[in-house]
Amino acid sequence: MSRVGSKIIELPKNVEVAVQGAQVIVTGPQGRLQRLFDPDFKIVVEDRNVRVERPTDSHQHRATHGLTRALLANMVTGVSQGFTRTLETEGTGYRMDLQGRKLVLQLGYSHPIEFDPPEGITFEVPKGGRAVTISGVDKELVGEIAARIRRQRPPEPYQGKGVHYAGEHIRRKAGKAGKVGKK
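The structure assignment produced for this chain is given below.
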């Protein structure tokens, strides 16, 4: 029995879940999300609780039971609280700015890199331009946008320059040892 899949999702106030066949629509104060799930699974909404039931104990159904429940729980959390991801820059001259809704990155290249946020994503750059906070209701989309930005200049292991997640530990390497004792 899946331990994650068998857990019940409690709905917060102001969050509504509508199940229409294989499609689930979750509406809350932060926004609205919809997703198609495997039609074999039964999503039951009763008494401000949601649970996912699998039809059989086959390997495929056991493998996706917990995933289905986790995706549904992330939808409920997203429309009630939202998700954020913070990226920071390290390096001389590296900075981030907002021009309207567009994020402009200066990462040591000869040109600035621009990111237009997709629908439902907002960027926030605090004063100083050394970090950006990405927020939205869809956890998958917030993580994907953060990964795309980080991919523009991943942190390098010698000096730690680049774009990294807030709180991420960057494994550092020692530099060259140099020639010792030879003349």
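Interim note for the steering committee: Helices lie at 59-80, 139-151. The CA atoms of residues 104 and 114 lie 5 Å apart.
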